[in-house]
Amino acid sequence: MTTFPRLRVALAALAAGLLTACASPIVTQVSNFNQWPSDAAGSSFSFIKPPAGATQPPPELELATYQAYAQQELEKLGLRKAPPGQAARLLVELGWITQPQERTYRQPIYDDRLVFYPPYRNAAGQLFPGYWAPSRFGPAYIGDRLVAYTVQFNQINLRILDTRGSPPGQPRAVFESHAVYEGQATLPTMAPYLVRAVFDGFPGQNGQVRRVNFDRETGAVIRK
Question: Which of 29, 34, 179, 201 has the most CB atoms lying inside 10 A of its own CB?
Answer without folding.
Answer: 179
